[in-house]
Each structure stands twice: as structure tokens, then as C-alpha cells.
Write a structure and sequence with these properties.
It contains 15 helices and 20 strands. Helix 5 packs across helix 12. The chain starts with 6 loop residues before the first strand and ends in a 13-residue tail after the last strand. The chain binds xanthosine-5'-monophosphate. The site of xanthosine-5'-monophosphate has 13 residues, from loops.
Length: about 525
Amino acid sequence: MDQIHQKLLIIDFGSQVTQLIARRLRELNVYCEIHPFQKITEQFLKNSEPQAIILSGGPASVIDEDSPRPPMALFKLGVPILGICYGQQVMMKCLGGSVERGHGTAEFGRAFVTKKCDIPFVDGWFDEGDEQVWMSHGDHVSAVAPGFEVFATSPNAPYAITADLSRKFYAVQFHPEVHHTPKGSKLFKNFIQQAGFNGDWTMGKYREQAIQAIKDQVGNQKVICGLSGGVDSSVAAVLIHEAIGDQLTCVFVDHGLLREKESDEVVKMFRDNYKMALIHADERDLFLGELDGQSDPETKRKLIGKLFIDVFQKHAAAVGGAKFLAQGTLYPDVIESVSFSGGPSVTIKSHHNVGGLPEKMGLKLVEPLRELFKDEVRTLGKELGLPSSFIGRHPFPGPGLAIRCPGEITHKKLDILRKADAVYIDQIRKHDLYDEIWQAFVVLLPVRTVGVMGDSRTYDYACALRAVTSTDGMTADYYPFTHEFLGETATRIINEVQGINRITYDITSKPPGTIEWE
Ligand code: XMP
């Protein structure tokens, strides 16, 4: 999309929490982009035209000769710069200060910084004394670069907050982006104020710009969009529909692995509320037929991914001459993360997406959400009038119930799973817990156990309940339901769902577990 808003550039040196810097800035209505340090050349900086720059933390040590450095041209752009942790140290090293590694100077975890002197960058800090911050450093700055002064210290970081006020260069040893620096956002706010940002990044404005950009990209050509019923593809579809109306056709694939009433709800919502051209592809027999007898998780995932592409291709042909494929790709999926080893990361699971499709079909991609984080997509969804019940839906994976039914899948197992899941979600809603939970679902275990109901012996399936809290699905913690809730839910499932006689609750976090079981 054309750059019509102010931009802040975040240079990533490989910190685990670089994305949080972007989150804090977006919350302050500042548009920002994260790019890996390897990509930052003088030419890149010229083309990028940032209004300010932030240098992230990272695992390297500036004491090592081959540690990553930004080009010196960065410091001559005349724009405000904020260095965080490694970003502070690299700034000092480049500008003539020094960094040391020494005994008793490492700090990991909570620390308190003490003010030396007031400047606008620390407005709102130190009103009630020292401020809590989060530190994570082995090296420390031992002499600031010429032009810099020290404005706050901590026991093991004598240069906790430093700045060269004339050049508007700021550098901090701690991490203002993390939750454990409670007033970190205030520092970002002060920094962007110093840099002249006017908060022009709002979802209302984004909507207008995105609509124009879609019109410019697509012209009078046709677009197809795979609709899963999840928030991302739904928001992308509604946005594109607003831009090009009838030129858009959505394809919703029912693979027989959806939840109770899901297919009707999605189709009704898009056909009735939005009057969108929608192909409801009933492919239950195809998917369940091919999955018959398959029990290996990766085989199941890959098979489903391949069938999705086949089905999509078949139905897209019916639209006639589509030149574009729309996807709900989000910003976290497009950020190129810094890899110090240079090696590929291990594949934990083959996630299903339609990635292989555009090339095969000669389609170009329309990805109107690729600059947004998930919470921004939800805000945009609200802007577009999507009902809040839809926007707040828990994520649901492309392979659907197939990966919640470990081992072989049968119609009978899927029926039992659907019913149990519906009772569990009903319980969560009744107790008003749905919005507190990132994702909740039932897993039907490939195990039957002995029980007694009435005076009879039962030999039925066991199931596991899963509920997690998370901010992005990358890490997660199990939800601490009360024993009353768990007991009541177990009783309801056993009473209402024939085929289950034992309930367990999964208390594994991610890592070491994953959210889904397969
Ligand atoms: P895991 O199980 O990897 O899941 O911890 C993290 C998040 O991703 C969702 N998920 C998927 N979403 N296609 C999707 O669209 C997939 O193949 C897929 N596998 C997992 C999962 O539900 C959770 O939100």
C-alpha cells in the first residue's frame, strides 16, 4: 500500500521481544515496520524514509568483532533514534562510546532505575520515585558516546537512560516494550512525541486506504477468496467486498471437519448479511473418504492441505477468469525474523494454507491485512460492522476436527466430538468465560475406558478438555478453571453425549505442548 502515513522503522537485531516494540507503537497509533539488520543498507534507509528509528535488543555482543552493526549512514539521516539494550550498546559503539563485559554488571529480570535529571523523554516517570524496569543484559555501556548524557541509572547499569538531546538520540539499557516495565509505553509515547508523530495510524483511516489500494490493484478483474469462517479471512472478504462488490467470489469448503452448525452460520452470515457471491462447497465425502484409515498426524495434515488445493482449484474455475486470490495473511506471518544460525527452524506441524495455489493457478495475491496484527484485524472488523460475536470467535485450524481426533477419524467419532465440543463451549459461554480464553475445545481420545452408568457397565471414549490463554498462539498457558466448573462440565458432557464416559483436563502449557493435539 502506498505510504500515506508516517512510518517508524524498527531494526531487528534478533531479540525475542522485537514484535512487542511494534505492538506498543501500534497501540499509540504509529505505523511501524520491523526489518532484520541484515537488510538495512544506506539505499534501504533512503527508500524507506522513516520518521524515526528504533534499534531492538539482540543476543549478540558488540564486543565481538563480527557482531551486527547498522550502517553509519543511519546516524546521519537526521531522524530521532531509540536504542534498546543491544540497540543502546551498538549505538554507543558506533558513535564513539564503549561497552564492557565485567563481573557484577549483568542484570536479568526486575530492576529499578533512579532519576538523575528531568527531560521530556521521561515525562510521567519517577513521579513516585524509582521506576521498575525489565533488564536482560550481560554487557553494559562503560562510557557514553560524545554528546550523550546520563539521565537515569540502575544498580548494575550506570547508563540506564541516556540521550543526546541535540540529535534526539535516546538509548536505554532495559526493555520498555515488555509487560514487566509497567510504564514502558509512556517512554515510547514520549519518544514518538519528540519525533513528531501525529497518531495517523487508525483502523478507520486504514479501511479507506486499503479499499483504495484494493481497487487500484484489482481494477475490473475478478477475485476469489477462501473463506474459513475465521476472523482473518472474514475481515479480508468484507473489506474486499466493500472495495469491489460483485467482482469478489468467496469459496467456503465444508470438509466434514467443522463444528456443530458452523457451516450454516458462516454461509448465512455472508450470504444474508453481506449479499456476497459465495460458493458453499460440500466436500465432506471427498475429505472423509481420503482420510479413512489414516492415523499419522502429518499424513492427515498434508492430505487435507492437498485436498483443499484440489477443491479450491475446481471451484475457482467455475468463477471464470479470476486473476487474483485473496488471503487473510497477517503481519506476524510476513515479518522476516532474524536467524543467527542461518539454519531453517524445525517443522513442528505442517500448517494448512493455500500457499501453493496462486503459483499453480497463475493467480496474484491480494493480502489487505498483511500490515496488521490480530488485534488490529479485530478492530478493523468492528469498523466494517462485523458482529462482535463473529469477531471474538476463537481461532479454528484449517484441518478442523481432524487434528482434535488423534489417530483414525470416523463419522461416529466426529459426531461424538462435535456434540461434546458444543456442550463445553456452551458451558464456557454460560459462565461468561469465552472472551477470557484464547481457544477452547474438546479432543476425543483414541482410548476407550470402562465405566458404570446406572447399573450397567460402559466401555466408551475418553476425552480431554483444552482451554488456553495466549496473545498470539505462539506461547500459551492452560486456563485455570475452578473445580466447580470442571466438575459441572464433565457431568454435563457425560449426561448429554452418548459415547463418552470419562473426561480429563489438559494442563500443559505451550511450550512444551502445542495448543492443538496433532
Ligand atoms: P499449535 O497447535 O501449533 O497452534 O500450538 C497454534 C495456533 O494455530 C492454530 N493452528 C492452525 N491454524 N491451520 C490453521 O489455520 C493449521 O493447520 C493450524 N494448526 C494449528 C491453532 O488452532 C492455534 O490457534
